[in-house]
């Protein structure tokens, strides 16, 4: 942890932690033209009251003196212009950005999605699917064609046609030709959210309605549902046996794995055998150790099933064959599904990076649209939109040479005016995203909705201090803490390092305080034998006489 962060953290902890309550606001004192009020002092005092164990430190008058002294230091820091320092501004902005994340989301929706994700993770779904591809931004005509295709296949599957054969013949997922649409087992957060939801909401043995993802239209058949097996750590030895191997080569691979298994049965070290014989060159140097994995994370279901079947009583598998070759697996550790509280933060991160995050963003956007009730100037919007041409798709569109006609109010958020030119600049920036939605008027309408949400979110973020007093208090306290740190660094720590004259004067004025008192050099000897003591005493006396003679 950086010393500055630690220092500011202490200041916040001991002096300025948020405490929200209704306090009558009256002038407490002023420093030059800056006024400080009773509500801030009362809030800080009452909060810290619970942290102070020494009764003497709870004295109101004494605490007021500390409070005034603190504000005098902050006032001096401002007079020195420390609040304008680039490093100070960057650090304060960074802290505000981090703190604001808790306010720029719909906590209710986030909580629901996290709990849903955990509950789903307790089960594993074995499913097959059929895909008809269509781009997210495809035209309405192309989208309808894709939908009709998947609907036709769906109808055939419901009438009893073999799902695997339909997938093999009609699915546009390239892997379906080999696996007949079989996806194996998977759990929450392994598939895109819409697909995952369809799989978890479809009963075992049933087929879902057509669903849309960014890849196109799918239908999902749920083949099995089981409890989540958790994750597992294993070591393995593999002998390759390619699909195109001859009968002789296949027999040789089988015999080799059997010989290795016999060595293990005779007590030879598994890890050393893996280093010596395993054809998996990524794991053999580590004694065959693989990264921990769960169902559906490896490309071999046979391997996963063999690994999860191992127990403490039977930690090593017999040789078995997968599509890659022959294996022997050794159990290292099983990792069961963790309780909710242990994985809550991890799930919150996953939700934030997953398609689910769109639901959270959409929920907040909807609330902000209701909160600020923006009214658009449709005449100005139409005039602005007409300037956007098909050159956009080639990343060649430019703003009109004269933008003044579009400088009027497109809409207003509270007191903040957004112009038509602001919108056109946004459209120009979006060319880099490669959006292909057609026709161009539909694309512009789509971009306007995103532009509006962006501006609403920006305004909301910029005014969090007005919306949430507790947020404003924490930011103010952190700002003061940073200023005090910078003041101490400038006025004390830097001077102590650079003021050589001051350091010399400090040394000269205090050096006598650190001199040695009267002292002697002595040799101490001890013994339980009196004769030995007498003998050594004579020797010491002789040495003292010799030393005196040398000095003389």
Describe the structure.
With 552 residues, the protein is α+β, with helices and mostly antiparallel strands. The chain has five domains: 3-102 and 468-489, no CATH class; 123-227, Roll (Chitinase A, domain 3); 231-335, Roll (Chitinase A, domain 3), CATH 3.10.50; 374-464, no CATH class; 523-552. It contains 21 helices and twelve strands. It has helices at residues 3-14, 38-49, 60-79, 86-100, 107-121, 140-158, 163-170, 176-179, 193-201, 247-265, 270-277, 301-308, 340-353, 356-372, 378-386, 420-430, 440-462, 464-467, 469-498, 500-510, 530-551; strands at 27-31, 34-37, 123-133, 182-186, 211-213, 216-227, 231-240, 293-294, 320-321, 325-335, 409-413, 416-419. The strands form four sheets. The protein has a four-stranded antiparallel sheet with strand order 4-3-6-5, with helices on both faces. Helix 1 packs across helix 19. The two termini are 63 Å apart. Mean pLDDT is 88; it is low at 6-22.
Whole-angstrom Rg: 37 Å
Helical proportion? 40-55%
What fraction strand?
5-15%
Largest sheet: 4 strands, antiparallel
Instruction: Report the principal-axis shape.
Output: flat
- What's the average pLDDT? 88
List the strand order in the largest sheet.
4-3-6-5
Q: How many domains comprise the coordinates?
A: 5
Provide a count of the helices. Answer: 21
Low-confidence parts, pLDDT < 50 over ≥5 residues?
6-22
Give me the count of strands: 12
Give the terminus-to-terminus CA distance: 63 Å
Structural class determined from secondary elements: alpha+beta
Kindly list the characteristics that best describe this protein:
552 residues; alpha+beta; Chitinase A, domain 3; 5 domains; four-stranded antiparallel sheet; 21 helices; 12 strands
């Amino acid at each position: 942890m950086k010393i500055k962060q630690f220092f500011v953290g202490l200041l916040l902890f001991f002096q300025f932690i948020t405490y929200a309550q209704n306090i009558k606001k009256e002038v407490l004192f002023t420093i030059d033209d800056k006024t400080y009020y009773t509500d801030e002092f009362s809030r800080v005092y009452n909060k810290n009251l619970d942290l102070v164990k020494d009764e003497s430190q709870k004295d109101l008058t004494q605490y007021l003196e500390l409070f005034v002294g603190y504000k005098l230091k902050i006032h001096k820091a401002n007079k020195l212009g420390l609040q304008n320092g680039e490093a100070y501004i960057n650090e304060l902005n960074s802290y505000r950005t981090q703190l604001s994340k808790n306010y720029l989301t719909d906590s209710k929706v986030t909580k629901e999605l996290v709990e849903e994700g955990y509950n789903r993770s307790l089960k594993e779904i074995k499913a097959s699917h059929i895909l008809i591809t269509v781009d997210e931004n495809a035209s309405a005509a192309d989208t309808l064609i894709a939908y009709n295709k998947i609907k036709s296949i769906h109808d055939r599957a419901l009438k009893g046609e073999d799902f695997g054969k339909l997938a093999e013949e009609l699915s546009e997922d390239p892997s379906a030709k080999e696996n007949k649409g079989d996806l194996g087992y998977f759990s929450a957060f392994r598939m895109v959210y819409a697909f995952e939801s369809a799989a978890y909401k479809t009963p075992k043995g049933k087929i879902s309605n057509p669903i849309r993802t960014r890849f196109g239209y799918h239908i999902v058949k749920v083949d099995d549902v089981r409890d989540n097996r958790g994750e597992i750590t294993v070591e393995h030895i593999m002998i390759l046996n390619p699909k195109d191997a001859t009968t002789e080569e296949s027999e040789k691979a089988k015999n080799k794995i059997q010989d290795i298994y016999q060595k293990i049965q005779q007590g030879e070290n598994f890890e050393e055998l893996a280093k010596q014989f395993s054809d998996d060159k990524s794991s053999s140097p580590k004694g065959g150790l693989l990264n921990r994995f769960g169902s559906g994370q490896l490309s071999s279901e046979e391997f996963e099933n063999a690994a999860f079947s191992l127990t403490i009583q039977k930690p090593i598998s017999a040789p078995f064959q997968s599509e890659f070759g022959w294996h022997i697996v050794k159990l290292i550790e099983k990792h069961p599904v963790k309780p909710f509280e242990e994985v809550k933060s991890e799930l919150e991160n996953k939700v934030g990076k997953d398609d689910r995050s769109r639901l959270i963003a959409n929920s907040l956007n909807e609330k902000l649209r209701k909160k600020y009730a923006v009214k658009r100037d449709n005449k100005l919007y139409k005039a602005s939109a007409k300037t956007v041409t098909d050159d956009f798709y080639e990343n060649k569109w430019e703003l009109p040479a004269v933008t003044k006609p579009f400088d009027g109010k497109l809409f207003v958020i509270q007191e903040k005016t957004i112009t038509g030119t602001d919108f056109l600049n946004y459209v120009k920036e979006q060319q880099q995203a490669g959006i292909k939605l057609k026709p161009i008027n539909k694309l512009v309408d789509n971009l306007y909705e995103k532009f509006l949400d962006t501006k609403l979110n920006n305004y909301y973020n910029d005014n969090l201090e007005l919306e949430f007093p507790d947020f404003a208090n924490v930011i103010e306290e952190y700002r003061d803490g940073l200023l005090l740190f910078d003041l101490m660094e400038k006025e004390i720590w830097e001077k102590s390092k650079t003021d050589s004259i001051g350091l010399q004067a400090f040394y000269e004025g205090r050096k006598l305080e650190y001199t040695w008192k009267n002292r002697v050099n002595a040799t101490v000897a001890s013994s339980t034998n009196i004769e030995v003591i007498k003998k050594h005493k004579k020797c010491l006396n002789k040495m003292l006489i010799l030393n005196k003679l040398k000095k003389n």
